[in-house]
Design a protein that fits this description.
The chain has 335 residues and is mainly α. It is built from 13 helices and eight strands. It has three domains: 74 residues, Endolytic murein transglycosylase (Dna Ligase, domain 1, 2-Layer Sandwich); 77 residues, no CATH class; 135 residues, no CATH class.
Length: 335
């Protein structure tokens, strides 16, 4: 036994050297930047194992030593911790970093942009056109969609915050809507709490309605507080708002891009030429700029405005009807 002991020690030493050598090679291999030209997507389906990852890497010719990869994943304890989803592998990234991403669930991100001034119908269309969205609400009416969101009897227009949302593949449209709704509620409430005193608005919802009108009337950010001030002044005086975007919204899908004099005289719940006060609901999704403008309108004596019609999106403001008519003659009627 004593004669065997030195040999066993030597053998154990040799084994340790071999193990250390292999471990060093595995570590170096897993942390060596990968060389390829374009970003690659690795898709790990729910219920799949890390073998699915190795198979996809083999297909892309990025796994020269598959055994090293399997040993690394198993010994690190990550074989059963990989989360399903799509993962982006960038040029210069390492296999170890890819596994870390999969354990942390850092999936590939898609963007969905909801534009300020869009209607709820345009919002839904954008979701329908996005490849990453799982469409579960197709065919449902607006009322049924709001029920699915747990917002029964609430009108959807204006309730969702326009922004760029980053989502992962197969994100349900319901989840997107919930996020956008929560964001609008958050911003609206924050701005309402810090609003100016003595506004002729009783609730945050009334502010949201007016913000949607300001959003549709303003193309130049610095004019928003002035336009909001015009509407605030008219509300205080009991004057009708006389704003074309509300009429257009009331026409609905029949609107052909041209508003006529008869449209201004045709009564609908949204016609601010025939009805006083605010519209029953918002007419679009206002952005934060329009919401802030309504909460802090410019203090002016303006009661009227007309677009200059020169493509700049700017307006000319007036304090009385006579000056307004002169501006309309100059910029619209071209007299």
């Amino acid at each position: 036994m004593r004669k065997l002991l030195p040999k066993l020690i030597v053998l154990a030493g040799i084994m340790l050297v071999i193990i250390a050598y292999v471990a060093s090679n595995i570590f170096q291999y897993m942390n060596e930047p990968l060389e390829f030209d374009e970003m690659i997507t690795i898709d790990l389906k729910p219920g799949s194992t890390f073998r699915s990852v190795s198979s996809q890497l083999v297909v892309h010719k990025l796994l020269e030593h598959e055994d090293y990869f399997k040993i690394w994943v198993r010994l690190s304890g990550n074989a059963t911790r990989l989360q399903a989803g799509e993962y982006q592998l960038h040029p210069g990234q390492t296999l170890a970093e890819l596994i870390d991403d999969m354990v942390a669930g850092r999936v590939k991100q898609y963007s969905l942009t909801l534009v300020e001034g869009w209607t709820f119908r345009e919002f839904l269309q954008a979701m329908n056109d996005n490849e990453a969205v799982d469409h579960t609400l197709a065919g449902l009416s607006n009322e049924e969609i709001m029920i699915e969101l747990g917002l029964d009897s609430m009108h959807p227009e204006g309730r969702f915050y326009p922004d760029t949302y980053f989502i992962h593949n197969n994100t349900r449209d319901v989840e997107v809507l919930k996020r956008a709704y929560q964001q609008m509620e958050l911003h609206l409430q924050q701005q309402w709490e810090g609003r100016d005193d003595n506004l002729p608005l009783k609730t945050p919802y009334e502010a949201l309605i007016l913000a949607s009108i300001v959003e549709k009337e303003s193309a130049v950010p610095e004019e928003r507080p002035i336009i909001a001030g015009v509407f605030i002044n008219r509300l205080r005086k009991g004057m009708r708002l006389h704003t074309d975007p509300t009429v257009i919204y009331g026409i609905g899908e029949k609107y052909d891009g041209d508003i006529r004099f008869k449209d201004l005289r045709t009564d609908t719940p949204y016609n601010t030429y025939t009805r006083s006060g605010l519209t029953p609901t918002p007419i679009a999704m206002p952005g934060i700029g329009a919401i802030k403008a309504v909460m802090h309108p410019a203090d002016t004596g303006y009661l009227y405005f007309v677009a200059t019609g020169d493509g700049s999106g700017r307006h000319v403001f007036s304090t009385n009807h006579e000056d307004h008519e002169k501006a309309v003659d100059k910029y619209q009627r071209k007299k």
